[in-house]
Amino acid sequence: MSTKGFTFKGGIHPPHNKKQTQSMPIENAVEPKYVVIPLSQHIGAPCEPLVVAGDKVKVGQKIGESKAFVSAPVHSSVSGTVKRIEQHQTTGGAKVNSIVIESDGLLEVHESVKPKGNVEDLSKEEVLAIIKDAGLTGMGGAGFPTHVKLSPPKDKVIDTIIVNGAECEPFLTADHRIMLEKPEDVLMGAKAVMKAVGVDKCYIAIEKNKPDAIEVMQKIVKDADGIEVAPLETKYPQGDEKRIINAITGREVPSGGLPMDVGCVVDNVGTIATIGNVFRTGMPVIQRVTTITGSAIKNPKNLYIRIGTLFSDIIEQCGGFSEEPGKIINGGPMMGIAQYTTDVPAIKGTSGILILNKKDATLQEPSNCIRCGKCVSACPVNLQPFLLSRLSIIKQFDEAEKNYAADCIECGSCSFICPAKRPLVDTIRIAKKEVLAKRRKAVK
C-alpha cells in the first residue's frame, strides 16, 4: 500500500495535546481495595447478576450475563467477596445495577481461565463463542458488543476488516501505546476477527502522527497474509468508523446504514488487542489501558486498570490533582462525557480520564451565528450544523429529521470551528435524540 495518507472530506485539526503521555509506557495500576462493576457497560440488554451478596469470586469469573443477543457478559476483575448489588452512578450519567466486590488482595484466578489455543485450529463458530463469552465490547468508547458486530446477516457480505488505530481524539494515547507495546496481541486479535467473519483482507489504520506505531505494526504484519497497515492523514474525526471506511476503501455508508452495508467491519485497536489477549491467556475482559491526563492532574499516565476501579482511586494513583479541576471527562475533550463526581467506575469503554483546570474548562460565551459556513465545511457527514442547531432550539424536530439530524456523529467539529462559539453539537444532540425516540415509538 502507498505511504500516502488516506483521508476524508471535512474535519478539523484541533491541538493534539498528546505529548504528556505519548512516550509514557503502560503501567499496571495498583489493585483497588474494591471495585464497582456495572451490569450494563454496553449497548443492548443489561446483564442479570450471577452472584449474590456474600459470594466469593475469583479473577475472570463471570458474574453477570444476559440471554439477549445484543449484550455482553461481565466478569470479576478481582478476587474477593461480593458485598452488595446496588444502583450506582456510571460514566454515562445514569445509575445502573452494579456489583460491589471487596478485594482480598490475592488476585486468585478462576478455574475457567485457560488459553484458547491457536486461532487457525478453531472453527468460525468457536472463535465467535470465545469472543462473546469473554465479554468483548467496543473499547473505543461506543460499547457495542463485538460478537454482534462480527455476526452480520447472511445477506451482508463482509470482505474487509479495519482495525481502527487512528486515535484522533486529542489527549488520548492508550491505543498508541497498545500498538507499541502489545503488537503481538493486535496481530492475534486481527487474525481471530478475520477468522470469525470469514474474510482475508484486513487493514490496520493508523494516523501519520504516530510514525513509531506505523513502523512497529508494519514489522509485525509483514509476514501475515492479508493484513497491512494503512497510514491515515492526521485529521479529526478520522477515527469515526464511517470516515475511516471512506478514507481507506472509498466506500460510503448510506444514511442510516452500518459498515456492514458496504462490506466492512471496524473494530478499535484496543478491542482487537484484548481479543488477542483472550486467546493467548484465556482471561476475559477485566482490564483495559486508559490514559489519565490533562492540565490538572499531577502525574499523567497510561495505566492498565481493572474494570470497576473508581475514578477517585485512579486519580490518586496519578498523584491527585495538581490544582483545582474545572472539568473531569470520561474519554477525550471532543466526544467524552463530563463527570460531576469521581465516585464512578472505569468501564470497558473508558479510554481516557481527562482532568482540565478551570482555565481550560471555561467555555467562551456564545454570540449570534454570523452565517460564515465554517461548520458546514468542517462537518464530516455533510450536514448543515447551523440549521440543525436552530431547528433544535425552536423545537422543529420534524424539520430536523428531514435535514438528517439522526446522521450526526456528535464529533463536535462544528462547535470547535465556530467563531461565534455556538453550542452546535449540544443542541443538535437534543434534536437527534428526539428524532430517534420518535422512530422507536413508531416501531413499537
UniProtKB/TrEMBL annotation:
Membrane-topology annotation of the record: Peripheral membrane protein
UniProt-annotated location(s): Cell membrane
Gene3D superfamilies: 3.30.70.20, NADH-ubiquinone oxidoreductase 51kDa subunit (3.40.50.11540)
Domain 4Fe-4S ferredoxin-type: 359-389, 398-428
Complex formation: The complex is composed of six subunits: RnfA, RnfB, RnfC, RnfD, RnfE and RnfG.
Classification via PANTHER family: ION-TRANSLOCATING OXIDOREDUCTASE COMPLEX SUBUNIT C
Name under which the protein is recorded: Ion-translocating oxidoreductase complex subunit C
Organism the protein comes from: Sedimentibacter acidaminivorans
